[in-house]
Amino acid sequence: MFRCSARCCEDAAASMQEVQRCIERCHAPLARAQAIVTAELEHFQDRLSRCSLQCSDQAKDALDSGGSEPRVRGQLDACLATCGEQHLRLVPAMAKKMRDGLANIQQ
């Protein structure tokens, strides 16, 4: 990418706009790679967040129904641990999806 950008600057006959477009073309694969990784991580984080919010809602409902705080805290901790375990199992598939997406980027 940096060599590509440097080559863009070597053309003394190129206008500023041409050099800028050339540099943008050099950086495009990196931008696509960043977008792939960012989208996957955001999706993963959103799913984990929804799971933890569901645990919090269940704990609040249990407290509102008269559940004891120590018992509800234990249930909340168990629910959050389950969320974590479930989402850890998703990491290999997420990593594969990112690798596949990155492999499709033309350099």
From TrEMBL:
<dbReference type="GO" id="GO:0005737">
    <property type="term" value="C:cytoplasm"/>
</dbReference>
<comment type="similarity">
    <text>Belongs to the FAM136 family.</text>
</comment>
<protein>
    <recommendedName>
        <fullName>Protein FAM136A</fullName>
    </recommendedName>
</protein>
<dbReference type="Pfam" id="PF05811">
    <property type="entry name" value="DUF842"/>
</dbReference>
<dbReference type="InterPro" id="IPR008560">
    <property type="entry name" value="DUF842_euk"/>
</dbReference>
